[in-house]
């Protein structure tokens, strides 16, 4: 477990940053310099009072020494390393890197995110070139006209006599074709100009929506109080967002408004105080749809739960349509998640509630309770294939209850998951190859 | 014998130019400009060479080609296809359907003449 094993390195880093000698720190902490040396080289585990003392001397939170940099940053760096072709990033020293150079690490993770978004727009644009029927038709028309002009012009340009009647005819044809070519190219330019306006849409609307939701903390008090309707709220939040992202946002906010009207905070809080955050228990107590309860729990103000809950919603195809990650439970930005998530399990057993302790291997090893259920999203009618979507609420297990249930190891996405061997793996992990965890 | 061409193309000025250069080269050129009954036209005219545009109103050149190749009498008929898109995918599709020759617009008159001459060996 690299997160814990590097506590010593972080102490050493912080000590050097504080300008303290090993002997000074050892004296203040009442241990021998050689013992501190062993700790700093991760050869002795450290915990309890000694850790607290050292944290106090170094004037840092003990968690900074034990947990290192934020898990999302680490996940971002791992992804960046995973995508680098022939990269030789020192994966095993990722915590050290993020701890020593948080600014640079942030920048690297952010650049990688940006590259991902740009790659996506390039794909979208080349799709447009290959599959856009309008563009293909316009190009075909232009090429046909050019062919006619070329053929006719070369007949006229050839040496030798051409009967005057033919000559006139070919001149007229070229004249016609030239006018047509001008018209087609004008149309094409107009079309490409319009396409440019829509170019923001090529930069992943889902990601724009995710960013807006994250900034709002997945919570919209003005909708809860009825001060704004979903359209007004979307208009206020969308800013420069593309039309597609705007529409997705309106849909999400409309669902939010309906959820808030059915389960207002005044109803939810007492039930939560009595029953705790299990969405199935709450659903029964409140007579509500469990998926709706999960969405409400993920939108609660910070004081309402012991720790904020994460949420993932997937459609029947497994595509993630809503992501609220937690600092210790990152979610993939593009594509599907880990097939072991109870989310996917519930898709294959619609209407069967699932509750399971899970943990992402290799990081802080915090445990979470995942509650999942797949519910119908369209009216159920005989003879029609039912349409399901799955919700998974991710609730951190309180530290004192940790270890009560044996958590099932699940990943974020295969490339950056060290869990091995894994029946659910769809592509090799760069972590396993680089021997992380074998430390 | 062996000098009759059927040009199936919907662009009037291309028809005019190609007809002119082929006629001047000694070919008898017949033309047809829609896809729906193009195969029917080939059956009734029995030309020695067919020049077939891919994008025709009513029916695609690939469909016409496949229909012709499915009957034994036209299995060996030289058929040259014209397309505005020279992508490998189109070329492969035409080759699978049994095209004799594939030409990408815009072509030059001499390319067109050479290709047609190559399709019918002068006896």
TrEMBL record, chain A:
<protein>
    <submittedName>
        <fullName>Transcriptional regulator</fullName>
    </submittedName>
</protein>
<feature type="domain" description="HTH cro/C1-type">
    <location>
        <begin position="11"/>
        <end position="65"/>
    </location>
</feature>
<dbReference type="GO" id="GO:0003700">
    <property type="term" value="F:DNA-binding transcription factor activity"/>
</dbReference>
<dbReference type="Pfam" id="PF09856">
    <property type="entry name" value="ScfRs"/>
</dbReference>
<keyword id="KW-0805">Transcription regulation</keyword>
<dbReference type="InterPro" id="IPR050807">
    <property type="entry name" value="TransReg_Diox_bact_type"/>
</dbReference>
<dbReference type="InterPro" id="IPR018653">
    <property type="entry name" value="ScfR_C"/>
</dbReference>
<dbReference type="InterPro" id="IPR010982">
    <property type="entry name" value="Lambda_DNA-bd_dom_sf"/>
</dbReference>
<dbReference type="Pfam" id="PF01381">
    <property type="entry name" value="HTH_3"/>
</dbReference>
<keyword id="KW-0238">DNA-binding</keyword>
<dbReference type="GO" id="GO:0003677">
    <property type="term" value="F:DNA binding"/>
</dbReference>
<dbReference type="InterPro" id="IPR001387">
    <property type="entry name" value="Cro/C1-type_HTH"/>
</dbReference>
<keyword id="KW-0804">Transcription</keyword>
<dbReference type="GO" id="GO:0005829">
    <property type="term" value="C:cytosol"/>
</dbReference>
UniProtKB/TrEMBL annotation, chain B:
<keyword id="KW-0597">Phosphoprotein</keyword>
<dbReference type="InterPro" id="IPR001789">
    <property type="entry name" value="Sig_transdc_resp-reg_receiver"/>
</dbReference>
<feature type="modified residue" description="4-aspartylphosphate">
    <location>
        <position position="53"/>
    </location>
</feature>
<feature type="domain" description="Response regulatory">
    <location>
        <begin position="4"/>
        <end position="120"/>
    </location>
</feature>
<protein>
    <submittedName>
        <fullName>Chemotaxis protein CheY</fullName>
    </submittedName>
</protein>
<keyword id="KW-0902">Two-component regulatory system</keyword>
<dbReference type="GO" id="GO:0003677">
    <property type="term" value="F:DNA binding"/>
</dbReference>
<dbReference type="Pfam" id="PF00072">
    <property type="entry name" value="Response_reg"/>
</dbReference>
<keyword id="KW-0238">DNA-binding</keyword>
<dbReference type="GO" id="GO:0000160">
    <property type="term" value="P:phosphorelay signal transduction system"/>
</dbReference>
<dbReference type="InterPro" id="IPR011006">
    <property type="entry name" value="CheY-like_superfamily"/>
</dbReference>
<keyword id="KW-0805">Transcription regulation</keyword>
<keyword id="KW-0804">Transcription</keyword>
<dbReference type="InterPro" id="IPR050595">
    <property type="entry name" value="Bact_response_regulator"/>
</dbReference>
